[in-house]
Amino acid sequence: MRLCAGVDLLLQIVNHVVLEISDTMGRLQLNDLTKVFDSGGNDIVAVNDLNLDIRDGELLVLVGPSGCGKSTTLRCIAGLERATSGQILLYDRDITHLKPKERQMAMVFQNYALYPHMSVRKNIGYGLKITTDLSREERGQRVEETAELLEIEDLLDKKPSDLSGGQQQRVALGRAIIREPDVFLMDEPLSNLDAKLRTTMRTEIQQLQQDMGITTIYVTHDQTEAMTMGDRIAILDGGELQQVGEPLKCYHQPTNQFVAGFIGSPSMNFLPVTHDGETLEHDTFTYTISTETVDSLADASRELTLGIRPEHIQLAESDRGNAIETTIQVVEPMGEVTYGYFEIGGETYTVSIDGEYRMEAGTQVDIVFPEEKIHLFDGRTGAAVKNTKLEAVADPLQV
Ligand code: ATP
User: Is the CB of 72 under 6 A from ligand 1?
Assistant: First the structure.
């Protein structure tokens, strides 16, 4: 018994140490990464003091609007751009100034970048030929294995011009996978594909990444891709990190109005209000808030922005507290959901309801913003002062 207890204790200690190490190790770290371009005498700060800790085996999505610095960040990590300042660490080793081929990383680009004159077989194997001293047979074997993994064995003798966009993207993935890199870097790899293929490839890349367990940084401007693929997502704006976290955390608890508006589709509705005691005052309505919400506003400015997601708005049949009377002007049935557009104070807002229900244009309705679902942002800084609770997301298996 005593021996068992001792072994147990030892195991606990080992587990603790392993957890501590894996929690703090961070396979790829960006420390104050900054990239400034000189554009005809003007400084363009593409990436500004970026700090990120990407875990071993994680799929981290870098997302943000066009020009926010996603590709530049990725290119700095790959060594294709020289960082102006800051550090890039891989397994605690400073790789900031290493050449691309010394970094053990493989990059997949939006335009596939395949060699048009080479067969698929040669395209996939080319990297091995120039970076390893594997024999011709060994390289051939690895190409066959990679093609099998991606289910493109029958394309090996074709040229890129004979392939569809999806097939070309698979070849580009094959070329990256075969090198067995420490890190995958993917720059909008699915943008050139049609919507249906994009959805399929999204799942395939996720599956492949999970099976291989290779740390991956995936760049996209598409918030749906970010939400569905990322273990965590990092949202950038103007070269600066706005938030990094699990997708649902960013959705329910955005750090600021920018993240709130960027994550979620259709976008969150924003209404300007002022805070006055126990009420929020809009030009056209008064919204009574609980003492809990009043308390959360203690340090906020008087000017606030009320945020409510289209899917969280309720349509009330009869007069309810905090209801706002309006008219549904346009209806868009999507099947699964129906979007309705309505006006408050001359601005157009969106409500999304379950597609099972009918909503008619021209119907007068009472709109309700349930208090537990509203977000409030400081009108001056945009920082979130009230968010929704993450615990409100139920586990379907427990319901
Ligand atoms: P997109 O989604 O449109 O590709 P992005 O988020 O990837 O955008 P970057 O390509 O990283 O953005 O560009 C960030 C900023 O740096 C932009 O203002 C861009 O114009 C600028 N920039 C990028 N490359 C250069 C360059 N070689 N010279 C000068 N400015 C550049």
Answer: yes
Name the packing angle between helices 165-177 and 195-212 (round to 10°). 20
**What is the per-residue pLDDT across 324-351, written as a single tens digit (0 to 9) for each?**
999 999 999 999 999 999 999 999 999 9
What is the helix (H) or strand (E) element at residue 342, kind and residue range? strand 337-344
pTM: 0.87
Domains of the chain listed by start with CATH number: 24-252 (3.40.50.300), 257-386 (2.40.50.140)
Pocket test residue of 36, 37, 109 for ligand 1, highest count of atoms within 8 A of CB: 37
Residue with the smallest CA separation from ligand 1 atom 16 is: 46
- Asked if residue 36 has its Cβ within 6 Å of ligand 1, the reply is no
Are residues 344 and 269 in contact, defined by beta-carbon separation less than 8 angstroms? no
Does 221 contact ligand 1 (Cβ within 6 A)? yes
Give per-residue pLDDT as tens, 175-216: 888 988 899 999 998 887 788 888 888 888 898 898 889 999
Rounded Cα distance, 7 and 1, in Å: 10
